[in-house]
């Protein structure tokens, strides 16, 4: 049976100014204050730095060895070098480079929890190729030969930072602060990690550094820098702050957050996110300090698992039964704030240690009974060495070698021979979890995400609320249970927001603020025709063609199909007006046919009057083609029918006007105008004008005929079913020719309005043409300024109004005479009025 014992040298620093433990001669180095050694077949050493002392700067009033060092409060290189050499030279006197045998030298060294301790001990231990197992912050080794000797009980750091980033993105904390310890690891964190955060959309309100922890002559400077950092943090609008550091960072962090207590400064609670290198540690003077700042904080921690035997092990630890353990008595005095009777320290204000005090009675802020990430890593490190040693011995074991000297030969293996077995070590620990290393000597494991929950009695719980795994399936790389998280009290148990400004709500888009990080922006409403349906959209977008933005511009609403239908009030009104005018026109035509032989009807060409009335009747009915769902036939017919019918009507009025003028001129003796007065002229005028308009319409229908169309864009909220005119030029040619006829007719009628004639129509035609031209001149701007079905309504209104104007102005006086004043409808009356 091979006996394995652990040799531990601690940089044990007490919380008061102390005198040297041993008297030192001028030729002796400063002694190690506390060390624990137990003889065994194989030694596993440990270099651990955990507690601090106050010290004064060296003033050369005493021997320097009696003044200790001026920077003992930090993890200093000189202490680490000293204890590293102490491991190698186990003689009574410290004689570097002198070794007598290997039986007292360690086969492996466990170091931590600070990266500087690990880095500095490597300077000595790597010379002798001693395997080093790092359980805390792993330093970055630039020397590849030295890096081979490192076996990290700490997963790859990139996985931790990825977990923090996913945590921030999961809760949408994109406006954060960063505070970190002032060391080389911080430089790498700021230069390499934070830019990756920024690429993922994280902005930084501030990036502050902790002052270096010191209790020497630089204490005032440290406090001043700490206060400046606190002011920056307090003024920040970021509710989430990432704290990057190492195990001793917690002490500085607590000191930084204690300023409000001593300076009476208001403080704004933050949600702290701490890295795995940190853990809850405190100085003796911080024992009574409040730990409420931790409540609700989140930490990435090294994965660990509680073991019942570890708790039982702690319960039976007593300083009276561990006389050979040089640590436990000092630990007991510091933990229970007491002194053993044999202690040489000042007993003022301190009770006597009985040795019967119970560790489980201490609050968690003083001592934790559970296995933390660091202790779990040390546990795994020891077993990794044990399993590797077993594998190494088994590989070299031969039955014939098991003689009296065989065992001793195996135990004299060189430390460097253990490396390959450590790298390939893979075993299940007593908690049932697999322990193995990757090709870079890093532990193959993930990180836990814990939520700190504090209590008034200075105790706390580490509640596991998630994890991040490198070798898990994609959907399980990052897992968080939001329901289990207890948030800081300031946020009333609601997940805090951490934004530079409020989110841009749907209906708005982001626009950058000049001189501010990209997470800071203003919110502008979406322009007309566009929406945004999510928060913080960089730009608004258009809806699909068959949809339109709602009033708030945050939703696309299906468009209604729109056309001038008979079922809607406007369509019904226009249809009733058109039919009413048609009946009136038919009634007038019937009156004129019934009284066709009366002077009023026969005056100014009876057939021309019939033609005008019939064209007006058709023009009223033509308006009905514009109402209803557009069809191929109606689209082809309505504009040509309107153009030709109106051309017949206007040319008939023009013919009437010309006849009036010619008839007056023909009454003069020997007038050459007599030969022009007759039916042939009127027919020629009406026929030629109608043929010209029909020709224009024929060219239109054969080249670019109108067709049913779906207009998605002209009206925002509607899909307009319309007749596309095919060619706007041809449409305006039809209107132009009709306008030309109306203008000529109006001009002639205006010139002939005062001609003496009992039944002179010139003045009535003048009024009718004035109304007709006014309607169609106003039609063009009205038509162009309206959209959708209202364009159709404008044209229908113009058709009906202009037709009704012709009917009313020209025929209402005649109908009045025919129906109400028949005594005036006589030839004698006509002849009397001529003279």
Description:
The protein is of the alpha/beta class. It has five domains: 4-154 and 372-433, 3-Layer(aba) Sandwich (Rossmann fold), CATH 3.40.50; 157-303 and 445-491, Rossmann fold, CATH 3.40.50.2300; 310-371, no CATH class; 508-558, no CATH class; 569-834, Rhodopsin 7-helix transmembrane proteins (Rhopdopsin 7-helix transmembrane proteins, Up-down Bundle), CATH 1.20.1070. 40% of the residues lie in helices and 15% in strands. The protein contains 23 helices and 27 strands. The strands form eight sheets. It has an eight-stranded mixed sheet with strand order 8-7-9-10-11-16-17-18, sandwiched between helices. The protein has a six-stranded mixed sheet with strand order 2-1-3-4-5-6, with helices on both faces. The chain has a three-stranded mixed sheet with strand order 25-27-26. Helix 3 (115-125) links the parallel strand 4 (108-112) and strand 5 (132-134). It is rod-shaped, with a radius of gyration of 52 Å. The relative contact order is 0.07.
């Amino acid at each position: 049976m091979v006996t394995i014992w652990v040799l531990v040298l601690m940089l044990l620093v007490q919380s008061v100014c102390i005198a040297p433990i041993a008297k030192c001669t001028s030729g002796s180095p400063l002694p190690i204050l506390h060390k624990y050694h137990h003889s065994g077949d194989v030694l596993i050493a440990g270099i651990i730095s955990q507690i601090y002392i106050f010290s004064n700067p060296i003033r050369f009033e005493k021997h320097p060895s009696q003044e200790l060092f001026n920077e003992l409060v930090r993890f200093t290189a000189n202490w680490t070098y000293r204890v590293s050499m102490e491991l190698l030279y186990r003689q009574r006197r410290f004689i570097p480079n002198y070794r007598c045998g290997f039986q007292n030298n360690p086969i492996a060294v466990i170091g931590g929890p600070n990266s500087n301790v690990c880095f500095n001990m490597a300077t000595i231990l790597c010379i002798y190729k001693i395997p080093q197992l790092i359980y805390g912050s792993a330093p970055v080794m630039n020397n590849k030969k030295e890096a081979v000797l490192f076996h990290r009980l700490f997963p790859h750091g990139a996985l931790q930072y990825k977990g923090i980033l996913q945590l921030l993105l999961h809760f949408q904390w994109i406006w954060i602060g960063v505070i970190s310890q002032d060391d080389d690891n911080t430089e790498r964190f700021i230069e390499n990690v934070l830019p990756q955060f920024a690429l993922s959309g994280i902005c930084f309100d501030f990036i502050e550094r902790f002052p270096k922890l010191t209790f020497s002559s630089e204490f005032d400077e440290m406090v001043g820098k700490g206060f400046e950092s606190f002011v920056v943090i307090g003024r920040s609008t970021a509710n989430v702050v990432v704290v990057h550091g190492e195990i001793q960072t917690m002490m500085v962090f607590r000191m930084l957050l204690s300023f409000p207590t001593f300076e009476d400064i208001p403080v704004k609670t933050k949600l702290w996110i701490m890295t795995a290198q940190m853990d809850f540690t405190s100085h003796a003077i911080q024992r009574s300090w409040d730990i409420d700042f931790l409540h609700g904080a989140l930490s990435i921690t090294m994965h660990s698992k509680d073991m019942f035997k570890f708790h039982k092990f702690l319960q039976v630890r007593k300083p009276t039964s561990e006389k050979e353990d040089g640590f436990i008595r000092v630990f007991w005095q510091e933990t229970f704030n007491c002194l053993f009777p044999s202690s040489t320290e000042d007993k003022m204000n301190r009770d006597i240690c009985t040795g019967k005090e119970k560790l489980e009675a201490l609050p968690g802020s003083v001592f934790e009974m559970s296995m933390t990430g660091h202790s779990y890593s040390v546990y795994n490190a020891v077993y990794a060495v044990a399993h590797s040693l077993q594998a190494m011995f088994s590989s070299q074991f031969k039955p014939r070698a098991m003689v009296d000297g065989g065992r001793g030969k195996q135990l004299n293996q060189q430390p460097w021979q253990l490396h390959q077995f450590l790298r390939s070590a893979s075993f299940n620990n007593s908690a049932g979890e697999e322990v193995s290393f990757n090709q870079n000597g890093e532990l193959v494991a993930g990180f836990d995400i814990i939520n700190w929950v504090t209590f008034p009695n200075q105790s706390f719980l580490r509640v596991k609320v998630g994890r991040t795994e490198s070798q898990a399936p994609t959907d399980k790389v990052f897992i968080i249970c939001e329901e289990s998280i207890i948030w800081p009290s300031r946020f009333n148990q609601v997940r805090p927001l951490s934004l530079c400004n409020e989110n841009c709500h749907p209906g708005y888009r982001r626009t950058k603020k000049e001189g501010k990080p990209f997470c800071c922006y203003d919110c502008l409403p979406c322009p007309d025709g566009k929406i945004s349906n999510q928060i913080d959209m960089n730009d608004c977008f258009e809806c699909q063609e068959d949809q339109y933005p709602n009033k708030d511009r945050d939703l696309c609403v299906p468009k209604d199909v729109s056309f001038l239908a008979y079922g809607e009030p406007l369509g019904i009104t226009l249809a009733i007006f058109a039919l009413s005018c048609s009946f009136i026109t038919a009634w007038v035509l019937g009156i004129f046919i019934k009284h066709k032989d009366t002077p009023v009807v026969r005056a100014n060409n009876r057939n021309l009057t019939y033609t005008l009335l019939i064209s007006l009747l058709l023009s009223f009915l033509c308006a009905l083609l514009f109402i209803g769902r557009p069809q191929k036939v109606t689209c082809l017919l309505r504009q040509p029918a309107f153009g030709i019918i109106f051309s017949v009507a206007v040319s008939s009025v023009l013919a009437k006007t010309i006849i009036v003028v010619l008839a007056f001129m023909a009454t003069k003796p020997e007038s050459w105008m007599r030969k022009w007065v007759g039916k042939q002229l009127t027919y020629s005028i009406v026929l030629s004008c109608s043929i010209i308009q029909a020709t224009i319409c024929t060219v239109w229908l054969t080249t670019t005929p109108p067709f049913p169309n779906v207009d998605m864009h002209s009206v925002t909220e509607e899909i307009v079913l319309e007749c596309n005119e095919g060619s706007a030029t041809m449409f305006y040619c039809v209107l132009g020719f009709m306008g030309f006829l109306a203008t000529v007719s109006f001009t002639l009628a205006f010139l002939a309005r005062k001609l003496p004639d009992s039944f002179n129509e010139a003045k009535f035609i003048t009024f009718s043409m004035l109304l007709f031209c006014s309607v169609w001149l106003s039609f063009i701007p009205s038509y162009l300024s309206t959209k959708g079905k209202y364009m159709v309504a404008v044209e229908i209104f113009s058709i009906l109004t202009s037709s009704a104007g012709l009917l009313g102005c020209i025929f209402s006086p005649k109908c009045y005479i025919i129906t109400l004043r028949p005594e005036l409808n006589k030839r004698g009356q006509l002849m009397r009025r001529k003279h």
